[in-house]
Amino acid sequence: MGPAAKLDPMTEMALHSLRDIATPEPVSWMPQTWGWGVLAGALLVMLALTGIRWILRYRANAYRREALALLKVVDEQLRNPATRRDGIRDLGEVLKRTALAAWPRSEVASLSAKAWARFLEQHDVDGAGHALERLLDDFEYHGAEVVANLPSNVCSDLVAAARNWIERHNVPA
């Protein structure tokens, strides 16, 4: 490279007087008006209330989850003809225990036969009470040999109806 050209004194003085570029302060992420703070607070409150409501509902439905777990055991019993009689008896017990967990004992404990079937039907949303009525009125009182010869679709219908009732029964507040 060749020698640098000599600048005139005015240009040289102008270059020495230059300063670095001044950058503005970073923009704050804090809202500038109080309305955004109110909106954020309202959203936080709604989120907290939704979380509390979910937790309360989850805890209130613990008896349903327990009943559904017991129903899986009963379903296995009903699939085997040797244990089908015990499975039908246990299915009735699971339904009664579920009802006792959801309603006051004074309303449910004394129910049997037609009154118990009527109770299941009254608190059913999707009509599972009809299949369960057949269980309560008929199958529970037959001998082991009659129950062992039941078609497998009848047993699966009973389990499906019981699952439907446990998941969807209506408990008044």
From TrEMBL:
Membrane-crossing residue ranges in chain numbering: 34-56
Organism: Rhizobium leguminosarum
Pfam families: DUF4381
Keywords on record: Membrane, Plasmid, Transmembrane, Transmembrane helix
Name of the protein in question: DUF4381 domain-containing protein
InterPro entries to which the protein is assigned, alphabetical: DUF4381
